[in-house]
Amino acid sequence: MKRISILAAFLLLAAGAKAQTYSYLTFQQTDGTQKSLTANGLKITFSGNTLTATSAEGTTTLPLTGLSKMFFTSEVSGVLNPTGGQTLVTIGESSISVLAPVGTTIRVYTTDGRLLTNFRKRWNGTEEICSGLERGLYLVSVGSVTSKVYIR
């Protein structure tokens, strides 16, 4: 009788177990920057010293020498431009960088509403706008688009 009870308890626990779902594959560079792509339908190929990842967001090519690691996650680690498929916000180890047109206003807030920076983009290319951030959730406003980002 004791064996049947233990077996029944084990089967109940096993029936309730479920695998965790990860929606994104994140690529982390050796400089700490990250880019996430939708995992569903993602195709990865290697050619020479280059990784090419193709998903619904477009194609990303990364040199393998600059790739620190890649991992699955349920949260996106880069904010995608809904019209161009281009990364606007890149999350580093403790920093946030932004790719946006010159003159774009960028703001970073804590989850309690405190403004950390109010920044106007000064030049083309990616600019680091906030560094030395503690682990946690932040709101990043790029022009009229606001997104949540998480510093690990």
Task: Furnish the topology, listing elements before pairings.
Layout: H1 2-16, E1 24-29, E2 34-38, E3 43-47, E4 50-55, E5 58-63, E6 67-73, E7 78-80, E8 87-91, E9 96-99, E10 105-110, E11 115-120, E12 126-130, E13 136-142, E14 145-151
Antiparallel strand pairs: 1-2, 1-6, 3-4, 4-5, 7-8, 8-9, 9-12, 10-11, 10-13, 13-14
> Would you state the CATH class of the largest domain?
Mainly Beta
Structural class per helix/strand content?
Answer: mainly beta
Multimerization status: single chain
For the record, the CATH architecture of the largest domain stands as Sandwich
CATH topology of the largest domain: Immunoglobulin-like
Rg calc: 20 Å
Strand content: over 45%
- Shape descriptor reads extended
Domain count: 2
Protein name: T9SS C-terminal target domain-containing protein
Organism: Alloprevotella rava
Keywords: Signal
Signal peptide: 1-19
Question: How is this structure best described in words?
Answer:
- This is T9SS C-terminal target domain-containing protein.
- Residues 1-19 form the signal peptide.
- The chain is mostly beta strands.
- The chain folds into 2 domains: 22-75; 78-151, Immunoglobulin-like.
- The protein has 1 helix and 14 strands, in the order αββββββββββββββ.
- It has one helix spanning 2-16; strands at 24-29, 34-38, 43-47, 50-55, 58-63, 67-73, 78-80, 87-91, 96-99, 105-110, 115-120, 126-130, 136-142, 145-151.
- The strands form 4 sheets. It has a 4-stranded antiparallel β-sheet, with no helix packed on it.
- Strand 4 (50-55) and strand 5 form a beta hairpin.
